[in-house]
TrEMBL record:
It is a multi-pass membrane protein. Its main location: membrane. This is Membrane protein. SUPFAM superfamilies: Metallo-hydrolase/oxidoreductase. It is found in: Cell membrane. InterPro entries: ComA-like_MBL (IPR035681), ComEC_N (IPR004477), Competence_DNA_uptake (IPR052159), Metallo-B-lactamas (IPR001279), RibonucZ/Hydroxyglut_hydro (IPR036866). SMART domains: Lactamase_B. Residues 519-718 form the Metallo-beta-lactamase domain.
Amino acid sequence: MNDLRLPLLGAGAWAGALAGPFGVTGGMLGAVLLVVLGSVLAVAGGWAIHRRRATALALVVMVAGAAAVAGLHAARVSDNPVADLAERRAQVRVTATVTTDPKEVTGQHATYQLRRISVREIKGRGVVYRLRTPVVVLGQDGWADVPLGTTVSTTGRLGPSDSHEESALLIAGAPRVVAGPGVWWRASDSLRGSIRDAVAHRPPDQAALVPALVDGDDTGLSDELADDFRTTGLTHLLAVSGTNLTLVVGFMLIVARWAGVRGRGLYAVGVLGILGFIVLARTEPSVVRAAAMGAVGLLAMTHNGRQRALRGLGAAVTGLLLIDPGLATSVGFTLSVLATAGILIFGPPWRDAMRRWMPQWCAEAIAVPAAAQLACTPVVAAISGQVSLVAVLANLLVEPAVAPATVLGLLGGLLGLAWEPLGMVAGTTATWCVAWIIAVARFGAGLPTAQVGWGTGPLALGVLVAVCAGIAFVAPRILRHPVTGVAGCLVLLAVALVRLPTPAWPPPGWVLAMCDVGQGDALAVRTGAGSAVVVDAGPDPDLVDDCLDRLEIDHVPLAVVTHFHADHVSGIEGVFAGRQVGEVWTSRLQDPGEGVRLVTETARSAGVVPGPAPYGATATIGEVRLQVLWPMTDSETRGPGDGSTANDASVVLLVESHGLRLLLTGDIEPEGQERLADDLAGLDVDVLKVPHHGSRYQDLDWLRTLRPQVALTSVGADNDYGHPATATVRGLETGGTEVYRTDRDGSLAVVESGGEADVVTQ
């Protein structure tokens, strides 16, 4: 029988930490009342045993204490002189210690370095304050070269922070070093640099992945590979996790045993290993959380490991939340705890069931990733709107390579400090291991049903939780028999490898279709039976012709060319092939000339004279009402021939059909988006066609204010432009938008369902 008292207290601490920031008094009182009521009901139902009464009382105290700590923590961060100066947008001089590594972020007009600092002294409005509080810095490139742990002085303007974890946002000038980092930080930087040097001669993705496995340093990892890892459920390998610590400290313990260390000496090695790992991977909250979960993993490998690890998990959750209540809302913390709990609770029964008919090592290799993935699935779906169908298979395939890659990567760094060529030997061997991991990620992401869309509403997530609970309950019964166990594994494999049947194409009542034409745009807005407005024509006439044939379009009352780049107009002949086209609207900017000539000649051969889209005009065509929002009537008609100018002159349309509002943006650039944001303040849409194939250059603040339910990105598989950019996709998803893309989802169709936009993929 599992002793769940400490895990229960951990859950209570979590509840209290979530309630605390809403007010020390209100949050604490509400949490206490809920738990007291539950405790009274439990006692009335037979929980009269002394131990259980004591547990109930401890739970009440824990919820109340965690709520109080969280409330005080939030108050300490938000109610201090720095926060007050931030509200007044004060110009300040700051002395602070840098506490995080740089992260590059792209703003509307420039690229910035994002750092976190701990303020020690601040001068603003003529007053000097000495205190310690966290602040986020947005600075220029000079901030990228400041080592972690350095004390700096700088000036800048404060602004309010949108997080409970920092007192303010500082738009900073150049930093001036006051004091260098301590010896531990210098040692950490040397080892991290040596790990990177040991693999620098290898292919870029391999060279970037080894440091990510060892210490979470994913600098240089391509957006494309990061997306593949996300699709296949391997993202945990790119960040500091409990697995990293378990492997690194486990390796140290093995070496210590070989050296004759026993008993308490091994515990000392373990503690030193954990502390050293925290310094190596940085003392950020995510690293401390990973260290705690890794320590739980080490406990699981000891005598009576499962019981000790469950208690350790409860204690770790409680301790972490009391030290840093902000972890209660951290997605990484949630996934880490759920994965660890899943392995400890679901893993052993599944392993024991399969051990009846397969070797233990094989049963454990299957049970561990499956249990972790199942426990995390509802949270992942809530965040991404998707459920990965290949995550278990991918994690199973990469598991044999993770441990040697991590240990060899660390060894390469350590040996490289003594002699660089020796470090490169170990580093090269580590990259051979990660090459397999990369191959699995790319293969898995390319499978027909690597992931499926899933709703993020309460009902959809409730159903998913129920399904996961049912799987956890019945899995041991299915897996204990070889016939049903093998059948279950084959079903899982088939689901990953075979494309699931989709509804008939086009789906009944479709409103907008985005054709999969590779790296280019081609959209159809349904105006009636067999009729559609076509917006852009993609790079290939055959592809757009085939798409319109499948949509059963034989009449095009209006064709719109947003701009004249080849990936939008080279397929124009396919629009006219066998179809009656009424009008052709184009961008006012007649550039580049080759695209202009192709559109003009093709249209005129069918008796149609293209003309510029009339700014501000509203047209009703069948079931559709559309309005031209851009470019304006005073915009240029001749361009310099560069890509950005033509992109920014794209025709932008607001379309209304069947109660849905759709914004079709062409390739408009951030400058044009900023103008539209000023002109269209307060605009809400249901569907957004993401500008410029999801390029990183976006006015994300404006796109998020549109509050689209879904965003569609037309993009070619394995394109050379890095489209769509991870920052753009994540920026939209964090606002609650479901993002679809043609390179993975195929052609897309928007349908109206209960007043909302749904997307059907082909």
